[in-house]
């Protein structure tokens, strides 16, 4: 089985970190292929960054998704998720949507602990889009820049742990969702310290993608997830155009 894991930012270090987390979660025999766009921002920390990230996800899904058994969008904003589902029939899983589903299986209410406070609104929008606004009891920013997570020291771990403890107490939650792909390797450590389920969306998305592929389930090609209509794209996107043969 081949899973395409798309890091929507342009940080090679973050891509390597995400790939390692995905491989740690994957079943034996699952081949993880991690990619990133060749344009955009090195981290996704706002709506402007997110717009380029969505285009980057669409690009990578179009270029590399045809022979994948599943695709993971490894950014907590799930940028370009619907576009990627149009671009390939392989099941496409965003790490936020996967984490929300996993948390809902394990607790009646969960809290999200993420990076920049300004991105909490993006998480709020996703919770409403996916229908989890009644299960999530709070979204908490730590104001840790995303790229700082590439060199995770104990001080940063302590800040994330403190935010999680505050969330559990203030929100009366039973689980914590980590709101950044760069936090992936913290899940088990924090789970042991906090004594509650701590969900990393990268691992959850990998397991959901594997399960759907194993069940021979593919993205519907009926309705709005049908392949994009044939038309010529211009500029840097010219090579991504769909034709009648697609």
From TrEMBL:
It comes from the Bacteria. One of its GO terms (molecular function) is amino-acid racemase activity. It catalyses: a D-5-monosubstituted hydantoin = a L-5-monosubstituted hydantoin; D-5-isobutylhydantoin = L-5-isobutylhydantoin; D-5-benzylhydantoin = L-5-benzylhydantoin. Its EC number is 5.1.99.5. Belongs to the HyuE racemase family. This is Hydantoin racemase. It comes from Aquincola agrisoli. The lineage of its organism: Bacteria, Pseudomonadati, Pseudomonadota, Betaproteobacteria, Burkholderiales.
């Amino acid at each position: 089985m081949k899973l395409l894991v798309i890091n929507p930012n342009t940080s090679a270090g973050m891509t390597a970190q995400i790939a390692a987390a995905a491989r740690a979660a994957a079943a034996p025999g699952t081949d993880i292929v991690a990619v990133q766009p060749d344009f955009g921002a090195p981290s996704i920390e706002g709506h402007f960054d997110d717009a380029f990230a969505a285009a980057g996800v669409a690009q990578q899904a179009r270029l590399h998704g045809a022979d994948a058994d599943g695709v993971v969008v490894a950014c907590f904003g799930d940028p370009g998720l619907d576009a990627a589902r149009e671009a390939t029939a392989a099941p496409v899983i965003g790490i936020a949507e996967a984490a929300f589903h996993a948390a809902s299986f394990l607790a009646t209410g969960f809290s999200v602990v993420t990076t920049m406070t300004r991105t909490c609104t993006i998480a709020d929008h996703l919770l409403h889009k996916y229908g989890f606004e009644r299960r999530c009891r709070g979204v908490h920013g730590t104001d840790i820049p995303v790229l700082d997570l590439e060199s995770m020291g104990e001080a940063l771990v302590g800040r994330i742990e403190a935010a999680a403890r505050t969330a559990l107490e203030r929100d009366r939650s039973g689980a914590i969702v980590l709101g950044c792909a760069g936090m992936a390797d913290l899940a088990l450590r924090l789970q042991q310290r906090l004594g509650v389920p701590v969900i990393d969306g990268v691992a959850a998305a990998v397991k959901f993608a594997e399960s759907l592929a194993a069940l021979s389930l593919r993205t519907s090609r009926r309705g709005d997830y049908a392949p994009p209509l044939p038309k010529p794209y211009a500029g840097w996107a010219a090579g991504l155009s769909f034709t009648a043969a697609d």
